[in-house]
Amino acid sequence: MARVPPENIRNYCIIAHIDHGKSTLADRMLELTGVIVGGAGMPQILDDMDLERERGITIKAHAITMDYLNHDGGRYVYNLIDTPGHVDFGYEVSRALAACEGAILLVDASQGVEAQTIANLYQAIEAGLTILPVMNKIDLPSAQPESVKQQIVDLIGCDPDDIMSVSAKAGTGVAELLAAIVTQIPAPKIDIELPLQALIFDSQFDNYRGAIPYVRVISGEMKAGMTVVFHSTGRKYLVDEVGLLSMKKLPVDVLTAGEVGYLIPNCKEVSETRVGDTIGDALRPMPNPLPGYREPKPMVFSGLFPADADDYEQLKDGLGRLKLNDASLWSEPETSTALGFGFRCGFLGLLHLEIVQERLEREYNLNLVCTVPNVEYRVTQTDGKVILVDNPAQLPHQTVIESVEEPVVAAQVVTPPEYIGAIMQLTTERRGTYINTEYLDPKRAVLHYRLPLAEIIYDYYDKLKSLSKGYASLDYEYDGWEVTKLAKLDILLNGDIVDALSVIVTEDKAYAWGRRVVDKLAEVIPRQMFEVAIQAAIGGRIIARASVRQMRKNVIAKCYGGDISRKRKLLEKQKEGKKRMKRIGQVDLPQEAFLAILKTD
Fold first, then answer.
1. Residue 471 to residues 23, 110, 411, 432, 544, Cα–Cα distance (Å)
2. What per-residue confidence (pLDDT) applies to 232?
3. From CA 333, how far away is CA 305, in angstroms rounded?
């Protein structure tokens, strides 16, 4: 791959809502620049996980370098980072933006501007990136180019003639887009004389070479043989190799300011290469790390436990490997009386939780039990002490709680006007506070709400899509804390609390929630040789109960006539045996029991 002067480098990303064609557009760019042979590669070549292909979404940010020969004969190097579009993976977008000078804002000509499009655009503007607006899927019969073009104009205030039209699938207009990147997106501002500063925007783990950080060099240069220092830990490492990111890693002698590539620092600990960290030269240390990089904040917490206790070490190793490539995944060991040893994990959202669980089960051949997801609460005790609670089992007794605060989010829902009434009713039921409504155009409105995060982590997104026939889209961001009345709802099986089934709910919804949970559990828990009593309780007060009837043998079937006392004796004997079984019997909870709680509505 030819090296070019810094003024011929273009670092950019593609930001858009989910399923607007980011990965397909990346494929066409790779074909036109000769990185892959047209038609020879798999579709969505940058989506290298099976899960990404199956779900049709980008889960992880990707980077690739392309050689581009302009029509005037100039040679340029394009560094493209493909980013996710789902609301749960907004942190991946922020990593990409920190390493770029420009962003292609991609909007589906049939679906128009959606919630995540707006959110990603605001992030890009805050990061100071140059925006190149592009309208995709113009060849679809349902495309509405003029309407969507006006939406983009209203959104960023550009001239309608500046919006490029492409069809990533057919390849229409992509060559013109590649040419426009040269003139529209600026070259990186660099200073080779300054000390080395490189931003880690991604990492991978290699079984033989250890942790491999992907970096954008901001200033100075990086070469094999030099000693680098990681700012967050202060650890120093000898660089074994540096290189560029094409379809495979290409070693080079030096990475200079403005370039995107990788380094192999002989680092065996996955926790040392923290995404978002700044790398410097150990001999010429930098005065300060690169500013403006935000640490990911887990929003949803859940317990992951191996179904087989012998798989605990395998689960521990799997989580460690995933955390290298996923900076937003948090975990710590946890013990449950019902499920044994496992991990308490923090996720960005429910989709993030599903992806992590599925990757662990596929890649490490594990069978996992996932407990009910919940958010983190801030509890002020009567003695003035403030604690953060991410597990219902940690919530103090009601007598020592002064107040409980829950996280709230600023949510925006983009929807056609005909669905506004149903969406407002759903959001109000979820304790949402209405702020205002904006109209992007006569066919698209934006509803602004303030919502408790706990109300949207279960099935709010699914119900939103169902009510709007798939047209509505959701985005949200953390918006502080709010005092509320909450209670811990315990689930008891034969009088014993199952800590893995405990949830924190609002007091006014506690009875309805408890009633639904015990009824659902009564359906999924298999019948035992003894009766199983399922109860929902707040503190010491039982608020709902259901029973799983016992299996029993007809012990008096052999009695034909005769004295009634004989039959009574057999029934009493059976009754005593059932009591003894109930005292020593264990109720085996199937995974369906935990899934049932998620589906109670």
1. 21, 11, 16, 20, 38
2. 78
3. 10
Q: Going by CATH, does the domain composed of 378-484 fall within 3.90.226.10? A: no
Contacts of 212 (CB under 8 A, 6+ apart): 203, 204, 205, 206, 262, 263, 264, 273
For 300-373, CATH number?
3.30.70.870
- The kind and range of the H/E element at 466 are helix 460-467
Rounded to whole angstroms, how far apart are CA atoms 371 and 279? 38
% of the chain at pLDDT higher than 70: 84
Q: Check if the beta carbon of residue 79 is closer than 8 Å to that of residue 103.
A: no
358, 305 Cβ separation under 8 angstroms: no
> What dihedral do alpha carbons 280, 285, 288, 293 form, nearest 10°?
10
Q: What is the pLDDT of residues 456-489, one digit of tens each?
A: 877 787 788 778 877 777 877 778 888 888 888 8
Name the amino acid, one letter, at 225. G
- Amino acid found at 479: D
Confidence band for 591, pLDDT divided at 50, 70 and 90: low
Q: What is the pLDDT of residue 87?
A: 61
> Which of the pair, 49 or 573, is modelled with greater confidence?
573
One DSSP character per residue, 539-575 reads TTEEEEEEEEPPP---TTTT--SS-HHHHHHHHHHHH
Residue pair 186/101 in contact by the 8 Å Cβ criterion:
yes
Residue 411, helix vs strand vs coil: strand
CA atoms within 13 Å, Cβ hemisphere of 305? 21
Ordered by start, the domain boundaries in the chain are 6-184, 197-281, 300-373, 378-484, 487-598
Average pLDDT over residues 63-80: 82
